[in-house]
């Protein structure tokens, strides 16, 4: 017997569907099916860091300027370059101890500590929507960042790589002193002083301004017009027959249990028992030392290979085959017991015959319309993008 509250929800759903006309809706309250909405066309910024053209321009220069690294040889763009979809075609990034671009970047000096960054580089595209709910609500202040959700907001995220030993800091400057050192450099640069003054109306540059400027640039990098977004907005011809079938299978076999909402991520931590990357000296235990890692977005996958938190899979087919195996109780990581795997794995029913169609659907989530322009120079006069 349907209760009164359930009845009201059902009536509301019927009215919503009736009023949506051709707008696609994929909601079944009774089965708690995942909800999919198109990405918002506009970004919601924090009240204390509204987006302006001056901030975006400043943040972009900072993003490409190795002045932010301890050795002045690494920029944010070193591992998040627009030519690579603001990600990197590497399994594990090489920061201050590297030279070269993308897959061709090499370690300069073999060092057990500075050899590799521990995890695969997330794409910066659409990080403005990190943490977005199934209903499209975004909290810029509470947006989860990194593979382990260890900080919230783009403003906080922007400063973390600068403080990281193997990413941008290096050995020359202590962690507790690095931000002060970088801010001192910026305050000593006449061009940056003027750019920060225009962006923030301040006389002295502070670390908080640095984080806000980079965060604002990152918020400008959105791709809300993939063919799937067009489909959700009413263009039934935006997807092929195989892509539509792949979407149905994607939901039916359990992918949607974690990959839901506008960003195809629940932004929660899950233990999957992913195989380790042998390049690391010790196993990556993830969040809370429980081998937990955040559900990544599935948008723009054409730019983000290799996949998973440690970049162990070079193709989407390999990723889907991995889920097929763990759904069959085949634990891939000897450090993770079967009983510790996320319970949602029990609901995954993917089989080999599903893989091609799911992969076809995932290709509809790509959108190549984003800022790819690289600055010709940066205020520090250092190499744009670092030693690449």
Structure description:
The protein has two domains: 1-33, no CATH class; 42-369, Cytochrome c-like domain (Cytochrome Bc1 Complex, Chain D, domain 2, Orthogonal Bundle). The longest helix is centred in the first third of the chain and has 16 residues, at 4-19. Helices cover 32% and strands 4% of the residues. The protein has helices at 4-19, 53-64, 76-79, 154-157, 160-163, 165-169, 175-187, 190-200, 207-219, 227-232, 241-252, 316-327, 352-362; strands at residues 98-99, 106-107, 144-145, 151-152, 269-271, 292-294. The protein is mainly alpha-helical. The strands form three sheets. Strands 1-2 form a two-stranded antiparallel sheet. Strands 3-4 form a two-stranded antiparallel ribbon. It contains 13 helices and six strands. Helix 2 packs antiparallel against helix 8 and helix 11 (241-252) crosses helix 13.
By DSSP, the count of extended strands is 6
Total helical elements: 13
* Rounded mean pLDDT score: 91
Beta fraction:
under 5%
Structural class: mainly alpha
Which segments are poorly predicted (pLDDT under 50) over 5 or more consecutive residues?
Answer: 1-31
Q: What is the CATH topology assignment of the largest domain? A: Cytochrome Bc1 Complex, Chain D, domain 2
Share of helix, binned: 25-40%
**What is the level-2 CATH architecture name of the largest domain?**
Orthogonal Bundle
Strands side by side in the biggest sheet: 1-2
Succession of helices and strands: HHHEEEEHHHHHHHHEEHH
């Amino acid at each position: 017997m349907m209760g009164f509250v359930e009845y009201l929800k059902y009536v509301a759903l019927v009215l919503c569907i009736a009023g949506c006309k051709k707008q696609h809706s994929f909601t079944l309250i009774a089965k708690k099916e995942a909800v999919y909405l198109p990405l918002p066309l506009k970004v919601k910024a924090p009240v204390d860091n509204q987006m302006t053209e001056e901030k975006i321009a400043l943040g972009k220069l900072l993003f490409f300027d190795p002045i932010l690294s301890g050795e002045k040889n690494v920029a944010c763009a070193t591992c998040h370059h627009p030519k690579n979809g603001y990600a990197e075609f590497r399994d594990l990034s090489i920061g201050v101890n590297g030279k070269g671009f993308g897959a061709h970047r090499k370690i300069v000096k073999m060092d057990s500590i500075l050899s590799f960054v521990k995890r695969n580089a997330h794409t910066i595209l659409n990080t403005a929507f990190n943490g977005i709910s199934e209903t499209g609500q975004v909290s810029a202040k509470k947006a989860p960042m990194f593979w382990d959700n260890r900080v919230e907001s783009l403003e906080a995220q922007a400063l973390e790589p600068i403080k990281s030993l193997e990413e941008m800091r290096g050995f020359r400057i202590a962690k507790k002193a690095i931000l002060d050192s970088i801010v001192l450099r910026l305050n000593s640069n006449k061009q940056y002083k003027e750019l920060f003054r225009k962006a923030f109306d301040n006389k002295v540059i502070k670390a908080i301004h640095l984080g806000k400027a980079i965060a604002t640039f990152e918020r400008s990098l959105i791709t809300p017009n993939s063919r799937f977004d067009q489909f959700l907005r009413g263009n039934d011809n935006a997807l092929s027959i195989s892509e539509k079938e792949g979407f149905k299978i994607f939901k039916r076999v359990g992918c949607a249990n974690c990959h839901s909402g506008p960003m195809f991520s629940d932004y929660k931590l899950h233990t999957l028992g992913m195989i380790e990357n042998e390049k690391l000296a010790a196993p990556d235990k993830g969040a809370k030392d429980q081998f937990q890692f955040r559900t990544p977005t599935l948008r723009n996958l054409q730019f983000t290979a290799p996949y998973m938190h440690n970049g162990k899979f070079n193709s989407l087919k390999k990723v889907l085959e991995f889920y097929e195996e763990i759904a069959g109780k085949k634990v891939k990581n000897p450090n993770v017991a079967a009983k510790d795997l996320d319970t949602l794995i029990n609901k995954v029913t993917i089989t080999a015959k599903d893989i091609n169609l799911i992969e076809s659907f995932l290709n509809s989530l790509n959108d190549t319309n984003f800022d790819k322009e690289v600055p010709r120079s940066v205020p520090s006069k250092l190499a744009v993008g670092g030693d690449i």
